[in-house]
Amino acid sequence: MGWKPCRARSARTVVSAAFAGSGYSLRMSQPPVAQERRIVTSVPGPKSVELERRRRAAVASGVGSVLPVFIARAAGGVVVDVDGNSLIDFGSGIAVTSVGNSAQPVVRNVREQVGAFTHTCFMVTPYEGYVAVCEELAALTPGEHEKRSALFNSGAEAVENAVKIARAATGRGAVVVFDHAYHGRTNLTMAMTAKNAPYKQGFGPFAGEVYRAPLSYPYREPAEISGKEAAERAVALIESQVGAENVACVVIEPIQGEGGFIEPAPGFLPRLAEWCREQGAVFVADEIQTGFCRTGDWFAVEHEAVVPDLVVTAKGIAGGLPLAAVTGRAEIMDAVGAGGLGGTYGGNPVACAAALGAMELMRGERLAERARGIGAAMRAALEETQRSNPVLGDVRGRGAMIAVELVKPGGKEPDAATAKRIAADCHQRGLLVLTAGTYGNVLRFLPPLVMPDHLLREGLAILADACMRA
Ligand SMILES: *Cc1c(COP(=O)(O)O)cnc(C)c1O
After folding, report:
1. Which domain holds residue 277?
2. Which residues form ligand 1's pocket by a CB distance below 6 Å?
C-alpha cells in the first residue's frame, strides 16, 4: 500500500551513510562460513521440508519454530540451511550468539574442556572454570561492592533462584513484576510473565505472591508522563496493594525483551531502585536478553547508572552454550545456607569454558561499542522508512536491540498481521527476523554483534523494502 521504489532506495542510502568509513570486520578471528546472503531454493527448501515432516511426527507441537529452516552451519552474521541457503541473521538465536555462532575463542575453549572432562557436578567436586566465570561476573556487572554469583542452566532457572535468594535475604514473600514482562516458562516464572497465550494458557494454577505493577511504556502512555512519575504510579500501587514491608524483590527487565523492546522513560529504573533501597527490598535486574554488550553497554542498567542488588544473566553469556547466573551483593547472595542453591548441571564446565571465551571476545572486539554502531545504523534506516510509512508506529530500543512497533495507519491500534507479513517477506528473501510484543505487532532485531557491515547494510535494505511493501 503506497510504497514507492525510490523510498526504499533512499533507505539504502541512509544505511550506507551511517556506515561511511567504519568497515567493521573481526580482528580476532575470521568466521569459517562465507559471510554472504545466498538463496538457492525456496525458503524452506526441499530438505528442510522433509526434516519438518519428520519433526512433526517426533517433536511435541508445543515447541514452535519461527522459521522451519533446518540449519547445517552458522558463523558470524549468517545461518546456512541444509539446502544451501545462507540467511542473514537478525535474531542471534534470541540474543544468544552475540559473539557470533561458533566464535573461535568459544570453540577453542569448548574443545579443550570437552577433551579434559565434561562434568563432575560442582556440588560434588568443583573446578576452576566455574570460579573464573563468577570472578568475571563480579568484575563486569555494575557496582564496586563485594559480589557473589551462582550458576544455573537457563534464564528461567536463574530468575527463580534470584527470587529464592531475595526471599531468604529479606524474610519476605512478595515478588513485584511489571506489565508486558517476560521472565520464563517454569511455574514461578510463568506467574511472573505477563502475556497469557501462548506462555500461560492452560498451565495454571500459578505460583502465588507475584504482583504486577504498571510499566513505563512511553509510546502507549495515555498522557505525557515522566519516568519518575511512572515509577511513582507503580510505587503507589505496590504500597497500597502489596505493602512495602512485604516486598522481597522487584524484578524488572531494563528493556523488555519478549514484551517488545519497551524501554521505560528515563528516571523510571533509578526511582524503582531507590524505592527498593528505602524499603529494604531487593532490586533485581533481569538482564537475560539485554546483557553482555547487547544494548551498547555491558549491561543495560548502566545507561542510567543504576546498580542492581542482583543481576540475572543467561542468553548472551556463553556464545550459545546453556549457562545462566545470578550475581549480586555478597550479603544478599550469602543469606542462603550451603546446599540451598545448585543443580546437577548448573555451571557445567563446558558451558563455563564457552563463557570465558565469549567474554574474552566481547572485550577484545569491544562489542559494546560495536553494538552502538549497529544501533545507529538500524535506527537511521528504520526512522527513514518510518517517515513515509505510518504503519511503523514506533522505532525504539538501544544498541543492537532495536524494534519497530507496527500499527494501523492514523492511530496506534496494534497491527500484528502486518508484522507477520513483513517477517515472512524478509524470511523469503533470506533475512531472519523475529517478532515480539504483547500484541504480536513488534518486529525485533538482534543481530550478532560481530556481523560485518555489508551484511548489516544488506539486511537493513531488505527490511526497509519489506516494510514499504507491507
Ligand atoms: C529468555 C528470557 C528469559 C528466560 O530464559 P530461558 O533461558 O529461556 O529460560 C527470562 N527473562 C528474559 C528477559 C528473557 O529474555
Report:
1. 106-365
2. 154-156, 159, 182-184, 253, 257, 286, 288-289, 314-315
